[in-house]
Amino acid sequence: MPVATQWRAEALKISTIAAIWLSIVLTGSLLMANYSQTPGMPGTPPAQWPDTSRVRLDAGLSKLVLFLHPRCPCSRATLGELERLMAHCQGLVSAQVWFIQPEGRDEEWVKTDLWPAAAAIPGVQVSVDHAGAEARRFQAVTSGQTLLYDAGGRLIFQGGITLSRGHAGDNPGRDAIESLLQQKHTLSASAPVFGCALGWKKPQDECTLCQP
Amino acid sequence: MSTLAANPLPQDHTLLRNTVSEPRQQTSTQAGDAAPVPNSALQRRASALFRDAENDLHRHTDELFARLMIVQWLAGIAAAVWISPFTWIGDASQVHIHVWAAVLLGGAISGFPVWLAWRYPGLAVTRHVIAAAQMLTAALLIHLTGGRIETHFHIFGSLAFLAFYRDWRVLATATVVVASDHLLRGLFWPQSVFGVLTASSWRWVEHAGWVLFEDAILIVAIHRMLREMSEIALRRATLEGSNCEIERQVVERTAELNSTQAELLETSRLAGMAEVATSVLHNVGNVLNSVGVSAELATSKVREFRVGSLKNVAELLQEHVEDLPAFLTTDPRGKMLPDYLLKLAVHLAEPQEAILQEMEMLQKNIDHIKEIVAMQQRYARGTGVIEVLSVADLVEDSIRINAASFTRHEVNVARDIAPVPPVKTDRHKVMQILVNLLSNAKHALDHSDGDRRMMVRVTQNQEGQLEIAVIDNGTGIAPENLDRIFSHGFTTKKLGHGFGLHSGALAARELGGTLTAHSDGPGRGATFTLTLPLEN
User: Fold this and answer.
1) Is A43 within a domain?
2) Among chain B residues, CA nearest to A36
3) For domain B384-532, which architecture applies?
4) Domain containing A124 — which CATH number?
5) Interface ipTM
6) Residue A88 forms contact with B (CB below 8 Å)
7) B47 within 8 A of B233, measured Cβ to Cβ
8) Which of the residue ranges A32-41, A109-118, A137-146, B71-80 would you say has the lowest mean pLDDT?
9) pLDDT digits (tens, 9 = 90+) for B216-256
């Protein structure tokens, strides 16, 4: 076979494989991006601070409540964003982080390395939510669900504080909360929440995006 | 097909064309009389060397990236397993999609460039695919690590690594992939790139700006590195030209040297043969003297024969042939005739005996001449033939050739021959050396007033080599002459030609041995030692 013809055949082979490779990589990347950008099931939190909650509002301070699954990989990014938020809004808000403890699991299972990381953030109280009682109370179904109540107990924000699943960085949820606390905005806001299902709801009602 | 072609010289890279003449002038200066290399040939060679170096660089970098890709793939899997091993619903879990992405998508991203690097190293398409894959790997790693800002450094590190190719187009490909990633995200998930607030809407521009900033720096560096490569190629091409010329001259000079050496060897060989021949002729001359003396003696003895008396007796008997009995019994002369004949017979027998003795001597001398000539012929014929020889015989033959000279000059030659094994060597060359050494020793003794002593000592030294030493108590050698005594043309004899010792030393070296001289100074004699290997 002449060299030129041989090279043409080689070029065709490489081009074909390159096209297939590009398709596979693009498809995989799109699927990954789609997964990351798809939010979990939004909660239906009470518009007013529930009196039955184990936690009380602090006088004159807004209250941020964050529900986390202790083993969800996305929780680390959420805690990172909470740390930044608390640093930006010192003295304006106190935070309560609930780590869900599913039934049948002990507290050791709950207290992963995320626990001390959360407890180390100034102004943050960390507690175990046994069997998701508080999550039920606040109707939070997705890990990363963040609720902000003003000093009067009125819900002014609900949603997530990450841009996508487990992705740290600037995001609309955190920006909205900071604006509300710094009174740049007064209207209630919301943002999509990205994380695993907390698991207290029935499977058919839960977010299925964690297991696409 | 263009992507398959090897990366050509940069279009803006005119160094090879512009600076060819300058190094060529330098070469002429450096190489002295080296023939100038044609300008176009030098340029072509420099271009070829540049392309070779560039191709080597591309292949080597492809190989490095292939290994890096595999490492990155494994690192991605490890990161996914470490950071997000499972996804959860309450207390139920399953393998996280990131783990599958790291294995499958990471494998797909890395697999194709690794295959290309293995199958088509050095091709342009290989490095462009590697550049794209490297950026896609960066995106995957950033994703797997949850968008950690530190992981973004992978992009900048990769760009620097891609600069190893010294091909700005590769950086362009990588930059396009990064830009495309942002473009696609902007189209499908705008919030992932732009966010929703004005504070971060142009963040991607900032990111791209830093990438372009690094690109600009790297492209400048690449341009400088390519310039250096082309300079090196040019220098190497120039050097090769010089080397070729030098090599040609070396070959020429070596041939001349070989020819001169061959001539010198032949001259030395002839000189050595002349030395032997001189000794032979000297001996033959001496024997011929004896032959001449014998011939004269025989002639004078023949002249002494009294042929006339015998003739007179014969004529007297002829006169009395008729009355011979009466003549012998009655005539007084007849009666004396028997006694006369008896005395004549006795008189003739004496010179006959002397003549016979001289004839025997003559025969011996002629045999001696034949023997000397035959020996010389044997050595002359034996050149280059390796034989197993008795060292004692070699020494004796050498002495015998010079024997007449030694006798005439009253030189006593002693032998101290240790029992040594036979030597496998060239008889002619050894004889040539020994005859010369003995002749020199005899000359050294010519001017000695006292006892003229010479010794030939044969031993086996500690290294197992054969040593034949010719020792004399003659004039000796001045220390300043010891160093140059083996030099060609050096001689202390009035009629010497300075070939003997030089050719002897060369012959010894050809036999795998050495010829050395030692003297404690003028008037204290000298020792010349021929060392030969015994194992050969």
Assistant:
1) no
2) B143
3) 2-Layer Sandwich (3.30)
4) 3.40.30.10
5) 0.84
6) no
7) yes
8) A32-41
9) 999 999 999 999 999 999 999 999 988 988 999 999 999 99
